[in-house]
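Cross-posted from the bioinformatics board.
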Amino acid sequence: MLKILRQSPLSARIGLGIVLLNILVAIFAPVIAPYGETTVVGNVWELFSRQFYFGTDHVGRDLFSRMVFGARNTIALAFVTTALSFFIGIVLGFFAATLGGWTDQILSRIIDIIMAFPTLIFALMILSVVGSSVYTLIFTIAVLDSTRVYRLSRAVAMDIEVMEFVEAARLRGEGLWWLMRHEILPNAMPPLVAEFGLRFCFVFLFIAALSFLGLGLQPPTADWGGMVRENAGAITFGIYTPLLPAGAIAFLTVGVNLIVDWFLHIASGLHD
Amino acid sequence: MDKLLEIKDLYIEAWSEERWQTIVNGISLELNRGEVLGLIGESGAGKSTIGLAAMGYTRQGCRLTSGSIKLDGRELFGASQKYLRSIRGTRIAYVAQSAAASFNPSHRVIRQYTEAPVLKGLMSQKEAEQKAVEIYHRLFLPNPEKIGYRYPHELSGGQLQRAMVAMAMSCQPDVIVFDEPTTALDVTTQIEVLAAIKEITETMNKAALYITHDLAVVAQVAHRIMVLRYGDMVELGETREMLKNPKEQYTRDLLSVRTLREEKAETEKEKIILEVKDVEATYTGREKVLQDINVTVRRGRTVALVGESGSGKSTLAKVITGLLPAIKGTITFLGKELHPELRKRDKENLRKMQMIYQMPDTALNPRHRVRTVIGRPLKFYFGMKGQEAEDRIKELLDKIELTPEKYIDRLTTELSGGEKQRICIARALAAEPELIICDEVTSALDQLVAEGILALLQDLQNELHVSYLFITHDLATVKAISDKIVIMLEGRIVEQGGKQEILAPPHHEYTDKLLASVPEMDPDWLDSLLAERASSFI
């Protein structure tokens, strides 16, 4: 592992640095943040100053402190959600591809039905029924997102499934789990990893959209997507503080994708 | 004679293992109008690299280091991209190995023919189409007026390859580079393509580079032959002269055809391992792809299953292994009847019947290490773990003549084709099988490597008394190793019996055609065969 790290290109190191920085900020949030997450400390939409590094938000809370605390909620939430959606999507996708026949038909049609609804509306429906907590939020987004992952992993697995080494494993009498875990998954890694980087970013935006509609993370909890929404109005007054949480999302996204690129490079065995 | 192509002291390097390595080492050659030069060697000899370099092109990751490539007196080395583009297709053209992969599946064949000449402004669409029909005619394509208007998937492999040759001719180039144009074809279709190539080069007075690894093939079309190995020239000479007395040992190795197995007639005493009785199978439910199949394999024996592609050889393997359940008939293995379906067979039966595939590249998981590939059956069938498994893996690697320490931790992608095939053999052996089904195991390999594999299989059989069911279309392989031969055509067995019995006349009509189609190391073989066939038509 260390050896791989030492051979990593500059871009990957930058990516790692960015992600590490974000994680450190999230862990040490109470130490770094000068004010509390939810305490009102100044006027509405104050500009940058010695007292408030990033200014204040629409109710007068310190934006810097909120961004530091927001890192905790946002990163953990996005990561857990994406990981869960990939787990569900990959397992089901591989199932459908290796078993084929009726299993594939039934799973695929169910997924088609879920995909037929606009994601946001479907999420709203579920969340308004079961209520909005962090867990239901994670689960709902993960399930909805996993439909895309299912499509991709099924298609990729179908390609691999017809290869002779899979046939050889079948002839040996290997069970389903071995086929999926040892024969197909390692070869399906490159496209799935690339998709992970992309999906990870979409989750931020999705949570932000839900927060805006009042069904995402509940105020006064800070999350970056929500903060962009809350403060969007400030832009019309020529105050650019809302760009800062947006910038933080972009920053982290770039970092994650730099790592993903590098990972892809190793996994696919491409050497320029 | 006028020199069309002149390559002098050509050096080409490729980027691999973090540095530039020389892959073509100071090759010089000349090509005159009306002449065909054969480039022959195993994979990695630099044949294709030289063929592409003749067009001023290198594959990605390669570079021309020094030397000179002159086409009709004009230097291509270091010429501008614009100039190179203008000559490619019009003055020098390329025919790739796999025509099926080189055609765009969604355009009609003739459109792909006319694309280049129309684009370069040499002729109008209509003229180009007329010309295409004319050339299809010359290449003996069936129904030349209509065939071009079909899509590539509606043509057979041999027809596509000829259509590809026609495409290369579309702009009337002076030089054509043929890169293994018949390697992917059956012996019977190979003849059609060879005849077409010979017709084109002779009657239209073109020069050609003919790249192949099969000496017998190149002997039919080339005037001179250059033998290459590891980017060096081994020998260059007139075809007849070289076949008569090759100077270098390597050329002699390529020329020699060996018999690996001595004829020993089967006896009734030997135990029957596998008995296939009255088997029928179908893919669609309607059309039967196999009918009335009866085959027996005895212990320690090799049965060769021979036929062209589409004859049902591989399908029969699928039926025996249970991947495609038979709809009629029985398969008896080691005295017990097997369930037609793979999933319902028990582990012990699966263990005793192993399979080795045609393409070692796809038969091994590219993400696995040798240790996993060989270790898995040990764990799966025998529950071996830790040191015990480690020792057994090393023992198996020894058996397939690969140094255990060097190979055990390698990824399968880090092996050559021959090494991969050996690992596949080790994987099969790890299960300690009674029967190994070998599906065209040598056809993707170079001649000398393939011979090594066959010799290894032979040694293993002598040592372990394992039986082989050997599926192949290569009659040289059959001659080399089999005890019994089964000849298949269109899903039926047309003839079967002991090796001598089948190979000695009188033959079944189809067997005769198959045997006659195998190229011989005789430059007059193709001409005499074609003459013979032509006269029999009249």
